[in-house]
Specification:
By secondary structure, the chain is an alpha/beta fold. The protein has helices at about 5-15, 40-45, 55-60, 115-120, 125-130, 165-185, 195-210, 220-230, 255-275, 280, 285-305, 320-325, 330-345, 355-365, 375-380, 390-400, 405-410, 450-455, 480-495; strands spanning about 50, 65-70, 80-90, 100-105, 130-135, 215-220, 235-240, 305-310, 310-315, 435-440, 460-465, 500-505. The protein folds into 2 domains: about 40-145 and about 195-250 and about 430-505, Rossmann fold; about 150-190 and about 260-370 and about 390-420, no CATH class. The strands form 2 sheets. The chain has a 10-stranded mixed beta sheet with strand order 1-2-3-5-4-6-7-10-11-12, with helices on both faces. A two-stranded antiparallel ribbon has the order 8-9.
Length: about 500
């Protein structure tokens, strides 16, 4: 094995990392809630300079883009400012226009300027006629005064690996990522949060001169949408939350832990699919054989990282390839080909790196085109994470028996363990704002139980359940007549279903 530290030695090494927390602002209690500060009218009344977006996808859709100026810190609105980039695809029939629809594609950390191009294609013509569709790169992301931590890798999420020594490596790497962000972005990090993005959305609402905004969000975007309804309930119109996060479980611990069982279940389905095609992929003829081949490959990568072109894929990163591929059954063939390529490379066979695997590894290992530090800026800025590395290692080890592939990933330590405390308490969502929640039972990113919890927290909501499909993000990605009809009906006339709805794959 390349790692020889035992459990005690690894814990001792990792625990020392917490000492760096004081250097990056981890010491001290979290801030208490403060009343909202009045935002000067000049932010709400600013005139936008609409221009071509300079992006082929947006330009082809006829979108225009503009920059919105918002306070860096809403508690000090006369201080420093940020730029938030937005796009607008105009309603196709201004005479029938109902209003303005904002959006978010998830992440957190996802740039959303072009998001509504895809979502708009799932809308019926009468819905498209009714809304100006607004894409947005949230603060600190994409074109919106992007956070730049200059990480040596792309991702702040990775597996803990196969043993305690691998976990110690992982924890050291995560502490380094947090320290880099603190060094590069200390002045802005406290304000790259969901609550501030919700405030930015309300500034955008004011700029458009409307009393209320409609909204479509998926994945993390459901949390942002829910937070907006909590902070601005009287300014929320028709709200659709697709593939929903549990706001009480949001963050890098509970939300991540919920991904473990969901991804193991999806891995079972994928293994069945691959086993039925053993003549093509050669991993075995039943679920157990395919799973065994995957787990053997992870152990092999721990002994000797798999060399694939410019990449070295070890036990920290191989589970991430699986995680990326398992969020849609439409990707099963793509993922099987990727794992076959990695297995062949591990065996010393000549391989070709396809575009999809190159994209995943380039983003994760090489920060190409940019690192995903804005994701951690939002997650760590929203919710405090436990500081003690032993907490994470105990959870990793406890999960291995039932979650051999994803337990070490979904329970691993993240940069949030070494981050400054949030500037504001986490938002508790409890309201009666009407909303439509859409969720698949097999979702691997935001587990189904989270949508049920959000449905309970938003007492006037309705839940549309897509049964027995392991898909994340439905409307605009996974065509389903039942779910699409519910969303389009709500956006068209504001009518929620009389009761919760259960849909099945077409």
């Amino acid at each position: 094995m390349k790692r020889t530290k035992g459990l005690t030695a690894a814990l001792t090494a990792v625990t020392g990392l917490v000492a760096c927390a004081g250097l990056i602002g981890c010491a001290g209690p979290e801030a208490e809630a403060k009343p909202e500060t009045a935002v000067p009218d000049r932010f709400y009344s600013q005139q936008l300079d609409w221009k071509a977006c300079g992006d082929p996808k947006l330009d082809e859709a006829g979108a225009q883009c503009a920059d919105v100026t918002v306070p860096l810190n809403y508690a000090e609105p006369e201080g420093a400012t940020l730029t938030v980039a937005i796009s607008r695809i105009a309603a196709t029939d201004p005479a029938r226009k109902h209003g303005v629809m904002l959006s978010n594609p998830g992440g957190p950390g996802g740039a959303g300027l072009d998001f509504m191009v895809d979502v708009g294609k799932a809308m019926t013509p009468d819905v498209r006629a009714s809304y100006d569709l607004i894409g947005m790169d949230p603060r600190g992301i994409g074109r919106s005064s992007r956070i730049q931590c200059h990480w040596p890798v792309g991702m702040g999420l990775r597996s803990a690996g196969v043993d305690a020594a691998a976990f110690a490596e992982s924890a050291a790497a995560q502490a380094d990522l947090a320290a880099r962000c603190a060094t590069e972005e200390a002045a802005r990090l406290p304000y790259i949060t969901t609550r501030n993005t919700a405030r930015d959305m309300d500034v955008i609402r004011g700029i458009f001169g409307v009393d209320r905004i409609s909204y479509y969000g998926t994945s993390y975007g459901t949390y942002l949408g829910a937070v907006y309804t909590q902070m601005f309930p009287d300014r929320s119109d028709r709200i659709v939350l697709d593939s929903a996060a549990d706001p009480d479980n949001y963050g890098t611990v509970g939300m991540m832990q919920a991904m473990g069982p969901a991804n193991e279940a999806a891995l079972d389905l994928w293994a069945d699919w691959v086993a039925a095609r053993d003549g093509e992929y050669h991993f075995g003829t039943d679920r157990a054989q395919v799973r065994g081949a995957v787990q053997d490959l992870i152990r092999q990568a721990a002994d000797k990282p798999i060399r694939l072109g410019e990449y070295e894929v070890d036990d920290h990163w191989l589970p991430l390839v699986l995680f990326v591929g398992l969020d849609s059954p439409q990707q099963y063939g793509m993922l099987a080909g990727q794992i076959r390529t990695l297995a062949d490379a591990a065996a010393g066979k000549p391989v070709e790196l396809d575009e999809t695997l190159n994209a995943t590894l380039g983003y994760a290992l090489k920060a190409r085109p940019e690192d995903n530090s804005p994701q951690m800026a939002v997650l760590c800025g929203d919710v405090a994470a436990p500081r003690d590395p032993a907490f994470y290692l105990r959870n990793v080890e406890a999960a291995r028996a039932t979650q051999p592939v994803f337990g070490p990933f979904s329970n691993n330590i993240t940069p949030c363990a070494f981050w400054a405390p949030p500037a504001e308490p986490a938002t508790q969502v409890r309201n009666s704002v009407p909303a439509l929640i859409v969720q698949s039972t097999g979702d691997t990113r935001t587990a189904y139980d989270g949508a049920v919890a959000l449905h309970r927290d938003m007492s006037a909501s309705r839940l549309v359940t897509l049964k027995d499909v392991p898909i994340h993000w439905i409307f605009g990605r996974y065509e389903n007549a039942c779910a699409y009809s519910a969303v389009n009906t709500y956006f068209r006339d504001g009518t929620l279903p009389a009761e919760d709805v259960t849909c099945r794959a077409d």
